[in-house]
Write a structure and sequence with these properties.
Layout lengths: L34 H15 L1 H10 L16 H34 L8 H15 L2 H22 L9 E2 L2 E2 L1 H36 L17 H6 L4 H21 L4 H20 L6 H32 L3 H7 L4 H16 L8 H12 L12 H12 L1
Antiparallel strand pairs: 1-2
Helix pairs in contact: 1-3, 2-6, 3-6, 3-8, 4-6, 5-6, 8-9, 8-13, 9-13, 10-12
C-alpha cells in the first residue's frame, strides 16, 4: 500500500489470504483459491494428518480391534473431530473472514467515522498490521511454537492420557510418532495461525480506537456508529465452531472411554462457551473509553437541549395560557417535537459502551454450542430422539 491516501472503495486489507501471506496453509493453493482448490487443499491436509495414522494403525493391528489395544484408532472420536472436521472448517473459515474484515475496515472510511485529517494515521494502522501479517518471521515463529507445543503435549504434559493406539506396551507406536511429529503440530499451527489473525485484528481496532473518530451519540445502533463491529464478530463463528468441535470430540472420548457423563461435563461446556464468547468480544473493549465519552457528551448536550425546549414549551403553552393558545394547540407540532426530543435523549441514555450486537452474539453462542449437541446422544439414543421428533410432526 502506498503512502498516499486512496479511495475507501479501493483500500485493501488482506489480513486473511492475499499475496502477502506465507502461512503453511497457503502453500497448497493459489493466492485466491476457488472452492475446488480449497477442497483440494483440505484433501491434501487429510492425506498428511489423518490417513497415515489410519494406515500405520492398520499395519500394526491397532486400527479397529480391541484384542491388541484397549482403544483402537477407529474408536478414538477425537481424531475424527480434529482432522476430518476441525481442520476443514478452519480452512473454509478463511473464505468468510477474508470478506468480512476488509468490509469492516473500509466502513470506517465510507461512514466518515475517520475524517480526512485522521486518514494518514488510519492508513498507517493498516500498513502496520499488514506488515506483521506478511512477515515470514511470524509464520516461522508460529510453526516453531506449534511443533514445541505438540511435543510438550504428547511427551510431557499429557503423555499419561495418550490413547493405547499411540502407546502400546510402554512404547510409542509408529502412528503415535506420526501423530506427535506431524499431525498434531499441523493442528496446532492452524489454531495458532487463527489466534495470530485475531490478535492482529485486535491490534488494528486498538490503533483505530486511538483516532479522533466521529461518533454519533444518537446513532440507532446504540454504539455511536460502531455497531457494525459487533455484528462483524459473527464472521469468526466458524472458527469458534471448529474450536468447540475439538473440545466436543475430546469430551465424547471421555464419555465413552473414561466413564464420564454429560451431566458431569456440562459445566465444562458452559465454561468454554462463556470464556470463548468473552475472548471474541475482548477486542471491542478498546472502544470503551471513547464510547463512554461520546455517551457522556451526548447526555450533557441533549440534557441542555431538552431543558431549553421544555422551558420554551412551558412558556408558550402553559404560562401564557389564553384562548388563542388553546385554539392553536390543536394540530400543533410542538407536542410531537417534545416527545421526539425526549426519545432522542433516551436513545443517548441507552447507548452501549462497547460495539455489541445481539444478533452477532446469538450467532456466536449458537456456533459454540452446536458441536456439543451430538453429546446428547450419549444420554438419549438417537433413535429415540428422532422418534420423538417424528411424533411431534405427526
Amino acid at each position: 500500500m502506498s503512502e498516499s491516501q486512496v479511495d475507501s472503495e479501493a483500500i485493501e486489507f488482506p489480513l486473511v489470504g492475499g499475496n502477502s501471506v506465507h502461512s503453511f496453509a497457503e502453500y497448497f493453493s493459489l493466492p485466491q483459491p476457488t472452492m475446488a482448490l480449497r477442497l483440494r487443499r483440505i484433501g491434501i491436509l487429510v492425506l498428511i494428518t489423518w490417513v497415515p495414522l489410519l494406515l500405520l494403525s492398520i499395519i500394526a493391528g491397532h486400527a479397529y480391534t480391541k484384542q491388541i489395544v484397549e482403544i483402537p484408532f477407529l474408536h478414538d472420536p477425537a481424531l475424527f473431530g480434529r482432522y476430518l472436521f476441525v481442520i476443514p472448517l478452519l480452512e473454509f473459515s478463511e473464505a468468510l473472514i477474508a470478506i468480512s474484515l476488509p468490509v469492516q475496515a473500509r466502513h470506517f472510511l465510507q461512514s466518515d467515522l475517520v475524517t480526512d485529517r485522521e486518514r494518514p494515521r488510519f492508513d498507517a494502522a493498516v500498513r502496520e498490521v499488514l506488515q506483521f501479517r506478511s512477515s515470514k518471521t511470524s509464520e516461522i515463529v508460529i510453526g516453531i511454537l506449534a511443533f514445541a507445543a505438540a511435543l510438550s503435549a504428547r511427551f510431557y504434559v499429557f503423555d499419561a492420557t495418550a490413547s493405547t493406539w499411540e502407546i502400546h506396551q510402554s512404547a510409542r507406536t509408529m502412528a503415535g510418532w506420526w501423530y506427535a511429529l506431524i499431525s498434531l503440530p499441523i493442528l496446532f499451527f492452524f489454531h495458532l495461525h487463527w489466534l495470530w489473525i485475531f490478535l492482529l485484528w485486535g491490534l488494528f481496532l486498538f490503533r483505530v480506537s486511538r483516532l479522533d473518530l466521529q461518533l454519533t451519540a444518537t446513532h440507532p445502533d446504540h454504539a455511536g456508529g460502531l455497531g457494525f463491529l459487533g455484528w462483524g464478530l459473527a464472521s469468526f463463528s466458524t472458527v469458534l465452531m471448529a474450536i468447540a468441535a475439538m473440545f466436543s470430540s475430546a469430551f465424547f472420548y471421555e464419555i465413552i472411554h473414561n466413564h464420564e457423563t454429560l451431566d458431569t461435563l456440562k459445566y465444562h461446556v458452559m465454561a468454554f462457551v462463556v470464556i470463548a464468547i468473552a475472548i471474541i468480544h475482548a477486542p471491542l473493549l478498546v472502544f470503551f473509553g471513547r464510547l463512554s465519552r461520546c455517551r457522556f457528551r451526548g447526555l450533557l448536550d441533549f440534557s441542555s437541549l431538552v431543558l431549553r425546549y421544555d422551558r420554551m414549551f412551558e412558556e408558550k403553552w402553559i404560562e401564557r395560557k389564553t384562548a388563542e393558545t388553546d385554539d392553536s394547540l390543536l394540530g400543533s407540532s410542538d407536542i410531537q417535537s417534545l416527545a421526539d426530543i425526549a426519545t432522542a435523549y433516551e436513545h443517548v441514555n441507552d447507548m452501549l459502551l462497547i460495539p455489541f450486537d445481539m444478533k452477532g452474539f446469538a450467532v456466536l453462542v449458537f456456533a459454540a454450542l452446536l458441536p456439543f449437541l451430538p453429546l446428547v446422544a450419549t444420554v438419549v439414543p438417537v433413535q429415540e430422539i428422532l422418534k420423538k421428533l417424528a411424533e411431534m410432526v405427526v
